[in-house]
Specification:
Elements lengths: L4 H43 L3 H56 L14 H50 L6 H28 L8 E3 L1 H19 L2 E5 L7 E3 L1 H17 L6 E9 L2 E8 L34 H7 L3
Parallel strand pairs: 2-4
Antiparallel strand pairs: 1-3, 4-5
């Protein structure tokens, strides 16, 4: 069999055409003489027997039928071949476009798309391919952004520690408890980043284990509020908790639920200006317990809403750390950096 799809389709069509031509030829030569012989028998009963006339008529009939069938088969084969070639090409063209686009996407050209030229299965395949390509392109952009974010987040504490150590070595800074505490916070930040990356790798590999037990919403919220409460007060954002005491307990992993709540409250704190309000609510509904975090912050633009649950997607691409101008040395800038 040929390797390419077009010759395969064309050969399949030609087999169908050839089979049809053989069936037509065999049917014509099998049924037409019998019908004509019956007709001659009826004529001989009326006109009288004349073997020579019957033989001439039968020979003429065979010649006429054979020529007509041959011409009809030849014409039908030519027309069917042209139609088969056209249909095969129309089927192969979008498949070839998909093949070329898939090859370019595999080489990293995620902006590649294929035209949707029909509303049939091939058109739906092209549309689904474009959706897949758009998803891959978006995921690749998010991956690059994630790498850039991780590099930035790692660079910030490393540069801070380097600045502090440089200041200590040059004698510009004194090893005071306050400075050592700052250096310890930078080390802890690096440790958290390393743990987050390791946990992310476990999630991607499907190896994240959950230790579920009956836990109340208040119990899950308590360590989160204790950790983030001072930050809300320092920023001037009011944090309200509306959690009824008699809510049923839920089967969950307290550590993972704490991570989710920490992320939600941390984002609310980051994007809510001073004087704003963040409310944590919980309520029972249909045998479940729902928890919501509502804030008066900047919100999410509508065009970003379809992607908020995509992995690593971030609406705000700006850095969370600003560098003041006019600093006399690197360690001073690091000391004043608001993270």
């Amino acid at each position: 069999m040929p390797r390419w799809l077009f010759p395969k389709l064309l050969l399949a069509f030609l087999l169908v055409i050839g089979t049809g031509a053989v069936v037509v030829w065999a049917t014509a030569w099998g049924l037409a003489p019998l019908a004509f012989e019956e007709h001659l028998t009826a004529m001989a009963g009326r006109l009288g027997p004349d073997p020579e006339l019957v033989q001439d008529l039968f020979a003429g009939f065979q010649q006429a039928v054979g020529g007509a069938v041959l011409m009809a088969v030849a014409a039908s084969v030519l027309v069917a071949f042209a139609v088969a070639a056209l249909v095969a090409r129309r089927i192969v063209e979008p498949v070839e476009l998909l093949r070329q686009a898939a090859r370019r996407i595999s080489s990293g050209q995620y902006e590649e798309r294929v035209p949707v030229r029909s509303a049939d299965e091939l058109g739906d395949l092209a549309d689904q391919f474009n959706r897949m390509a758009a998803s891959l392109q978006r995921l690749e952009c998010v991956r690059r952004d994630l790498v850039a974010d991780v590099a930035h987040e790692l660079r910030t504490p490393i540069t801070g520690l380097s600045g502090y150590l440089e200041g200590l070595l040059d004698g510009v800074l004194e090893p005071t408890p306050e400075l050592l505490a700052r250096m310890r916070r930078e080390v802890q930040r690096l440790e958290r980043l390393a743990e987050d990356l390791q946990e992310l790798s476990r999630v991607e590999a499907g190896q994240l284990s959950l230790r579920r037990r009956a836990v109340s919403v208040g119990e899950a919220l308590e360590p989160v509020l204790a950790r983030l409460g001072p930050q809300f007060r320092d920023k001037g954002v009011h944090l309200a908790v509306e959690v009824p005491e008699r809510l049923p307990r839920v089967l969950a992993d307290p550590d993972r639920i704490g991570q989710v709540l920490t992320n939600l409250l941390g984002n609310a704190l980051q994007y809510t200006p001073a004087g704003g309000r963040v409310v944590v609510r919980a309520w029972a509904t249909d045998g479940e317990v729902a928890v919501s975090v509502v804030d008066t912050g900047v919100g999410i633009p509508p065009e970003h809403l379809p992607f908020v649950f995509d992995r690593f997607y971030r609406v705000d691409r700006s850095w969370s750390c600003w560098w003041p101008s006019g600093c006399s040395s690197l360690w001073r800038a690091l000391g004043e950096c608001q993270v």
